[in-house]
Amino acid sequence: MRVLIVDDEAKITNVLSSYFEKNGDYTYIANTGESAIQMVDQVPLDMIILDLMLPDMAGEDICQYVKSNYDIPVIMLTAKISIDDKIKGFEMGADDYVVKPFHPKEILVRAERLLPDSHKKQVITLGQLEIYKDERKVLINHQSTQFTPHEFSILLLLAENPKKVFSRDDIIQKIFGFDSDINPRIVDQHIKNIRKKMKEDYIQTVFGLGYKINEKVKQE
């Protein structure tokens, strides 16, 4: 599980990071709202632990941004205890709401309970498409289809975030790395190759923006 911990208190981020990493998870830390959003856009995440009171941005606004663009569970952390605050948090899309102080093990348990079944099983199903993440294997109509490593990574990125439109630059950063000097048209060629290997149009072109999973394809 790849977890982003967003809090401006180093003590909290360090303790939570330690618990998750001992559990075998990967953690990323952001101390401001701006850095949190940058991390969300740059790193494929499975879970976000989000403090509501940050120095530069309201946690509710960050949560709303995440939920508008990604399918990532969000656990809100806050010192606010009123029912109105909790309702507001859930209205912004929070999947869980924990009031400080808390035990870090509680956060770990809550995060594991929220993890989607597709991540637990390491399989994503989209119509007749099955993506096995650990094995880096793709089945279409139950038939194995070969993809290059970059093709597989691009397909997985889109499938894990079906609400998100990824620009060419987004895909280059996430698949090839921040410092990669790659012609953006290479992404178009990879998308073209992926489409050739599929009978259905699983990847949609959003004119002027980039690529995303076709919402007409049923996700199970």
Verbal overview:
- With 220 residues, this protein is of the alpha/beta class.
- It has two domains: 2-115, Rossmann fold, CATH 3.40.50.2300; 119-213, Winged helix-like DNA-binding domain superfamily/Winged helix DNA-binding domain (Arc Repressor Mutant, subunit A), CATH 1.10.10.
- 42% of the residues lie in helices and 21% in strands.
- The chain has helices at residues 10-22, 33-42, 59-69, 83-91, 104-114, 117-121, 149-160, 168-176, 185-196; strands spanning 2-6, 26-30, 47-51, 74-78, 96-99, 123-126, 129-132, 137-140, 143-145, 203-206, 210-213.
- The chain is elongated, with a radius of gyration of 18 Å.
- It starts with a strand and ends in a 7-residue tail after the last strand.
- The mean pLDDT is 85.
Please specify the SSE layout and strand pairing.
Blueprint: E1 2-6, H1 10-22, E2 26-30, H2 33-42, E3 47-51, H3 59-69, E4 74-78, H4 83-91, E5 96-99, H5 104-114, H6 117-121, E6 123-126, E7 129-132, E8 137-140, E9 143-145, H7 149-160, H8 168-176, H9 185-196, E10 203-206, E11 210-213
Parallel strand pairs: 1-2, 1-3, 3-4, 4-5
Antiparallel strand pairs: 6-7, 7-8, 8-9, 10-11
Helix pairs in contact: 1-5, 2-3, 7-8, 7-9
User: What overall form do the CA principal axes indicate?
Assistant: elongated
Largest sheet: spatial strand order = 2-1-3-4-5
β-sheet strand percentage: 15-25%
Oligomer state equals single chain
Point out poorly predicted stretches. Answer: none
Cα distance, first to last residue?
Answer: 21 Å
Q: In terms of structural class, how would the helical and strand content be classed?
A: alpha/beta
- How many beta-strand elements? 11
What is the CATH third-level topology name of the largest domain? Rossmann fold
Tally of individual domains: 2
CATH class of the largest domain: Alpha Beta
List SSEs in N-to-C order: EHEHEHEHEHHEEEEHHHEE
CATH superfamily of the largest domain: Response regulator
Largest β-sheet summary: 5 strands, parallel
What Rg do the Cα atoms give?
Answer: 18 Å
Helix content: 40-55%
Determine the mean pLDDT. Answer: 85
Q: What is the number of helices?
A: 9
